[in-house]
Amino acid sequence: MLRRRFIAAGASASALASFGVRAQQVTRLLVGATPGGGTDIVARALAQELTTRLGHQFIVENRPGAAGNIAALAVAKAPTDGSTLLLSYTSHAINASLYPSLPFDPQKDFTPLAGIASLPAILIARPTLPANDVRELIALAKREPGKLNVAIAGMGSANHLAGEMLKRDAGIDIVGVPYKGTGPAIADVVAGQIDLAFAGVATVQQLVKAKRLKALGVTSEKRLAAFPDVPAVAEVLPGYAYSSWYGLFGPAQMPAPLVARIADAARAALGSELMRARFRDEGLVPMGTGPDEFGAFVRSQGLLTLFKGSRSSPEPAHQGA
After folding, report:
1. Could you report the per-residue pLDDT of 151-197, keeping only the tens digit for each?
2. CA angle in degrees (0–180, nearest 5) for 154-189-131
3. CB under 8 Å to 293, separation ≥6 — which residues?
4. Eight-state DSSP code of residue 61
5. Cα separation, 12 vs 8, whole angstroms
6. What's the whole-model pTM score?
7. How many domains does the chain have?
8. Are residues 88 and 134 both part of a single domain?
9. What is the CATH number of the domain that holds 167?
10. Radius of gyration of the chain from Cα atoms?
11. CA 156 → CA 60, 178, 312, distances in Å?
């Protein structure tokens, strides 16, 4: 029995080595955001599952700044042996539209491994806004063009894009006000200093239930189970749908067997009851797409022109954390 265990352990180590992953290796999972946020939460849940499934340690390393570009650059320059990976989010595809001189190519310098999760948003409003749903909001914005404002919790974020899509599809003029984080943006909507914001479900659901915010619509194609009385924006603007997303990347030119091994482990991790429960608590929807499908998805997300000509205040309205 003991001999068979040694043989099995040796075979496992050999298999890992053949894929460019040493059994004793530690894989750094870089996150371009601060600890405690949505990206960090997804990364830590995934790292725990990958450690179990691939037989070596995955550790999360936070490198916030520049809308995720600092972490992305480190991975773009990393070895192709699976020792450094990136858990990125929507801005990975958007940043090329916002930063004309990126030090890397968001598509050519990375290997897409797996789509991990998506997160619909809720369009919320200050409690005193004289509109109770998207239809009334559009009518109000058309009566008073340029007078309403919407908080942007991070330039280039998914919530920023959701707001630009709403303005484009509805043909309305609402001024974007950049913030440095979701917390201060939502706080100002609650306080009535800002009219509107898009936010993740988990971030605002308690405030909505306590009637400290109005929920005008959700960005998913259909109504959310957690808010059955809140209509989807698509009920007023057919075809409107947007969710932020989280995905796993490696540097370009990773060996195909290694790509398959990591991608399979990531998708299997999404079947873990512990991970699915964590995602439900955060309002996340598992994606589970593999390298080809996820790569095509990222390319489609990069074809953005919505930010050109958008009206935004030049400086953040609030610097708080």
Report:
1. 988 776 778 888 999 999 999 999 999 987 778 889 999 999 999 99
2. 115
3. 115
4. E
5. 6
6. 0.73
7. 2
8. no
9. 3.40.190.10
10. 21
11. 23, 10, 12
